[in-house]
Write a structure and sequence with these properties.
- It is built from no helices and ten strands.
- It is mainly beta and about 120 residues long.
- The two termini are about 20 Å apart.
Length: about 120
Amino acid sequence: MNRLRAVVKQIIPLKRLNLIKFDFNSHEINVLILEMNISLDVGKKAELIVKPTAVSVLNEYCGFENVLRGKVKSVKKGDILASVKVDVCGVEIESVLLKEKADFKEDVFVVFKANDIAVSKVLDD
């Protein structure tokens, strides 16, 4: 599981749906949450989680919901799948994808949808 510590920048409530904008080391991360059952306020820190299977890696920038620039640390190919680990501001983010799609340059973009990331806990520090 990928774990990212981020700070709440903005909360936009839309009936039962909430769009929360986080700052992750100067990268914006957008998270969609149904019915907020956690105590989040602007300025609070939180741990975000996203499954490696929900993360994609791209060689070129695209206009996606969440785009983080990083450097490939490792690529391990199995019979069918590959694990690609990317360093984003000192934090390792893993993507699991088909092995034939795991050929990347050193500089890449990590992307994931706003509904594929969750707030696992609100932090006190």
